[in-house]
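Supplementary Methods S3. Input chains for the assembly prediction are listed below.
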Amino acid sequence: MIATSQSLADRFDPKALAALEGLDFKARYVMEGFLSGQHESPFHGFSVEFSEYRDYQPGDDLKHLDWRLYARSDRLCIKRYTLETNVRFYVLCDTSASMAYRGGGAWGSKLDCARILAAALTWFLLKQNDAAGLLAPGGADGVPHFIRPSQKPSQFGMMLRHLEQLQPAGGACLSGLLAEGARLIHRRSVVLLFSDLIEPAEEVEMGFKQLRFHGHEVIVFQVLDRDEIEFPFTSPLLFEDLETGVRRQVSPSAAREKYLARFHAFMESHRQLFRSLEVPHCVVRTDEDPWHALAMFLAERRRLK
Amino acid sequence: MNLSFLNPWLWLGVLALAAPVWLHLRRKPPANLLRFSALRFLDDQPVPRQSPLQLRERLLFLLRAAALLLIVAAFTWPFLRDEAALLIRESRVYLLDNTLSHQSGEGFVRDRDRIAREIAGAGREVQVAVIELTSQPRVIASFGDDREVVVRKLRELKPSFQRGSLLTAFQQANSLLMNSLGDRKRIVLCSDNQENQWTENASVPPFLHNVEVTLPAIAATQAPNLSLAEPRAQRIFLGDKSVVNFAVQLNHQGPAKTANVTLRANGQTIVSRAVELPPAAGSVPLQAQWEADPALWLRGEVSVEGDPDALPGDNRVFFSLPPVREGKVALLARSPYLRLALSPEVMRGQWAARSLDPARVAAELAAGRDADVLCIESNYLQSADARKLVQRYISNGRGVLLLVDRITPLVGGALRELGFEPEPPAPSGAKAAAERIEFVFPNHPIFHPFVASDFGNLAEVKILRHVRLRCPSAMPLMFSQSGDAVFFQTTKGPGRLFVAAFGFEREQTDWPLHPTFIPFLDLCLQSARAEDDMPSSFEPGEMCALHVAADPPVREVALRDERGEVVRTPVVGRRAQFRVPDLPGLYALCYDSGHEPEKMLSVNPSPKESQLVYVESPDALKNWQFRGAQPASPATRTVPARGLSLSGIWQQRLWWWMLVAGLMALMAEQVWLVLRKERA
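Predicted structure tokens for the full assembly:
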């Protein structure tokens, strides 16, 4: 799948994506662009399946009669079907101020990237009769964005509206978001988390453990900018933290090595955490196409089925 | 300086207060600032130094607070300044009287030079403006003008012959002072303090508030003067002779015993003789008659010389008479005397009479060929067509001479339509006795020539029988011995109506046999004829509005005197407006490029300017000033700010509260800044 997405990389044009108005179009652009490169349609195999027979009762619709069985056994039986078991997906989106960062080579901010991915996956899931819902930190009023999973055709529009309303603001909120998810999500569900995970690891770890303890499957899409991964700065800069406002006078040439070491340690600690919790983890860079994240998701979904 | 919320300076002040607060709140991000998301991996990097920034902001705060204080102080300076620190101590407006009377004793030149000297020598703490008092007071120099320019403008001023209103000049000076900066506001009147200039506006309500007025010192309460006023010329026809009757008033005041009067007309000296003056000041009427060609314009002037005479500028008056234009009379009368008097043999060149056939009045009414004057006996008013004819003459602006020789019910009704109420005859019952004319209105143009007896004595005229008429709206011009008004003038409509309470028949009066009859009839018809509404006599500098006839079309009108063209102005909508020249004289009004005078304008000084009676302390000025705002001398004047208490200052003006609010806003900003840094 990675090879497929790499071959499709030429099909992704960040300028075309940026030129599109509205999250709906962006999501379709990403998802359909991705799907058109697949050799096997992911929509196959989702038809209704036979469950059992029962005796015909007056008033039953004759179209559900199994005429072949009647020919063979002279019995009037009604054929009953069972819909394929649907999975409940929750999209959890981190909206801390750090998600507003957009580096020089990125096609959008981290939150933009997360929003588009979430919208694209939502559209894909609803196409496959899965139920999709949303949970995100609240805006100025403090009320979190929460949409119960549903398969209704109107669900996609509702999800889009809420995703468009998300604004990066405030300090660290991931641990609170995970705790809120553990509180609000009752039935076993699949949680798709979009975050940069740049928060104290202890509290975040507790949140993931709570979700896993409640039996939820979790897929983490860690959205990062190239500047955060590579720290490409050269001239001395005055850095200001997006979440706290703290300023640091940094000489990048001297600090890069230490930064990268600490960043890799941070990433490694999260990988270990996710391995221990059996949580799939995908890093999405804002300067690259997001299709490998979608490919990873499809693989995970097949595994879940 | 009264401030209110409607004063634009208040809103400017609010903006000025908001500016430093905004500047202080404004934060410029550093040029090399990068807002980064993963700074937690750089938490061991040094934090930028904050101390210098803190110190700089405090200094900035002090500077802004000082700026705020300066701004507020700038707005409140009229109340806080010290006497010694005043930039403008006094705002002074000079009122230079440039009317004719101020030429007496070279008063204008003397005051003009004095103002120029005072302006040149005034310090910078005094702001000066100058207003010239003429027929339309004008500002020669405003407060901000360069003083050298002001002095040069003053030197260029020439004495004028105009008359101006002191009230208008004071109001103009007051409006200047209302917008001045000086704490002491002062009007310096450089005038002769002529009494009639003060008394004509004595009852004006007060308008001078906290304005000090410096009046000129008066050396004497009056000055000797000889002047001429009210020239009046008329043409009178005596048989074949055309005589000009001229009258003028010689006013004298002072010890002069004789005055030499010279009358010139069309370049010839008509009269030149000495006139004895009565010892008491007063007016001497002078009259003269001489023959003149009725087909020519008459241009004349009268001058007087005598000693002592303080004001030579009013010693000449000018007059003019247009050529005679033959008038048309429609005659509907049986009186043979009247027919004879209006016959071509008597009135040739003056009046052309056309007798109307009483049986064809309707045809005359339909033809619409109206004459200048309709002369009709009341007997014919029994005809409805004749009544309509009278009404049409009046409504068309023509003249009517109505002779009420008998009263019938129909005639009475017609007279009532004209506003006259016939009264029953005297209760004596006996045959009415002959009465003489007892009194005539001497200032009326008809009777003015008869004031002197050169044209006969009207008192010799007998009225044997007359009708008693009463008309409240008409002006009686002649009375009989019994006190009945026997001759009226009324202007009920656009035209003029003269009504005689008797007919010109032998059984009613012997006037047709009297030598005054023909002149009277001529003057009466001239007065009844529609004349040009535009006056021909003006005062120097007066505005003249001229209505021009539509045919022929006129684009421009011009005023010329013997030296050439003086004024030229365009005609807009058949109307031309111009200012009459300042110099007295005769001016010919011409159309377009023509040189033939359409009208002559005589410009003579106002007779009031010749009354050289002065007043030292005018009552009018006391009325113009608000009570309790008497001018205080500089020694006793107190500066308001010095006497204010602290509470008084706090209650003084809104600006203080704005100062406090501004300081509190800056302090709040600092507290907020500190809290924000602590939180960071």
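Chain B is about 25% helix and 30% strand. The first helix of chain B runs from residue 8 to 25.
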